[in-house]
Amino acid sequence: MKSISLLGATGSIGQQTLDIVKEHPEEFQVSALSVGKNIEKTKEIIREFKPKLVSVQLEEDALALSKEFTNIDFTFGNKGLVDVATYTDSTYLLNAVLGSVGLESTLAAIRQKKTIAIANKETLVTAGQLVMAEAEKYGAPILPVDSEHSALWQSMVGENRKSISKLILTASGGSFRDQTRDELKDVTVVEALNHPNWSMGAKITIDSATLMNKGLEVIEAAVLYDMSYDDIDVLIHRESIIHSMVEYQDTSVMAQLGTPDMRTPIQYALSYPERLPRSTAQRLDLAKIGQLHFENVDFNRFRCLGFAYEAGRTGGTILTAMNAANEAAVAAFLDGKIKFLEIEDMIERMMQQHNNIQNPDVETILHVDKETRKSVQSMIK
Ligand SMILES: NC(=O)C1=CN([C@@H]2O[C@H](COP(=O)(O)OP(=O)(O)OC[C@H]3O[C@@H](n4cnc5c(N)ncnc54)[C@H](OP(=O)(O)O)[C@@H]3O)[C@@H](O)[C@H]2O)C=CC1
Ligand SMILES: CC(=O)[C@@H](O)[C@H](O)COP(=O)(O)O
Ligand SMILES: [Mn+2]
């Protein structure tokens, strides 16, 4: 039985992780979990999964819940995320919290030598170098949950990593893949949230529409697999059936395929090195699909992808600035405060005015993150 701490239990990945726990009650249990502000869903989760420790975002919610559930410990805020991530009974952390707020809890769990299954890509973007260095120092495995990175991993198992020549990340193209740049000027939040293949949280769905999601994933791949940016390609693949590919020096290409269902990579990260059955999943029927399509990315149409390559190649705190600017700008778009194309304008401005620091420590990263968010806010008002 693997005992899991789950960050972001009320979210899209969090809920699908709980589905996997339900599918395999003899394999997994959730000992501790965190949520944000969705208290009604939290109560349902507590009743069903009976965790021993729960963290909420706000102190008042922790107080109210502790009166209702007297046999459970409650904690809150960023310290609460750390408390859950380092919970003694858990050997695994599945980090599915949204945004760079997941950084400190990830580092804390690494220092406790937990196995880290990471969906929270913003942590790897804002502080990838630091996270990987700490993971190596403490011997904590970092296992990808993101579908592309899980596909890359599954396409590398048993291979000599030195013989890899290229990583090829597939991208659906997002909600506006068939629109011209001119048509993007006045798109609405509802239109942007209409992803063609995946049902996901709001922020990542907008990232997918700007292709910043793929940009974050290019950085995530460089960090996880220690690859040069010159050897990471992005390929538009509208069906999201091939989840990514690895090209080897002998020109062989290994890929992982499947119906778009995040429960499969979540389960793989939790069950590795075993493969467990997926009784609730839809099987891939290629004859029914008939055709798979591929095209190169237009970097003028999707400017965020270029920003991510630039930040990745530069390294240092510009990665934090880019990520924080994106988080703040996407939140503003979702709140109806800015237009869709202003997301990339704000990221570009934040990157242009950033004073880069190489090899930052955590305090520097947290400072840059906070200041960048403030700058974006001041541009909006
Ligand atoms: N959804 C997907 O299919 C995929 C997601 N990912 C990545 O996984 C991560 C989670 O994405 P997703 O599940 O879509 O996101 P959601 O928005 O659906 O869920 C986010 C979770 O984080 C919680 N949360 C948000 N902000 C805070 C905060 N400040 N403090 C504590 N908890 C907080 C939310 O709580 P509450 O709702 O209670 O307020 C919720 O539980 C992201 O990094 C995303 O890029 C990667 C691949 C696929
Ligand atoms: C499910 C998943 O991993 C998402 O990150 C997904 O990749 C989004 O799809 P696109 O960014 O390719 O639209
Ligand atoms: Mn992905």
From TrEMBL:
Alphabetical keyword list: Isomerase, Isoprene biosynthesis, Magnesium, Manganese, Metal-binding, NADP, Oxidoreductase
Residue ranges of every copy of the 1-deoxy-D-xylulose 5-phosphate reductoisomerase C-terminal domain listed in the record: 142-225
Binding of NADPH, residues: T10, G11, S12, I13, G36, K37, N38, N120, E122, G201
Pathways per UniProt: Isoprenoid biosynthesis; isopentenyl diphosphate biosynthesis via DXP pathway; isopentenyl diphosphate from 1-deoxy-D-xylulose 5-phosphate: step 1/6
Cofactor or coenzyme needed: Mg(2+); Mn(2+)
Domain 1-deoxy-D-xylulose 5-phosphate reductoisomerase N-terminal: 4-128
Pfam families cross-referenced by the UniProt entry: DXP_redisom_C, DXP_reductoisom, DXPR_C
Keyword check for Ligase: no
EC number assigned by the record: 1.1.1.267
UniProt: 1-deoxy-D-xylulose 5-phosphate binding residues: K121, S147, E148, S172, H195, S208, N213, K214, E217
Family to which the UniProt record says this protein belongs: Belongs to the DXR family.
Protein name (database record): 1-deoxy-D-xylulose 5-phosphate reductoisomerase
Gene that encodes it: dxr
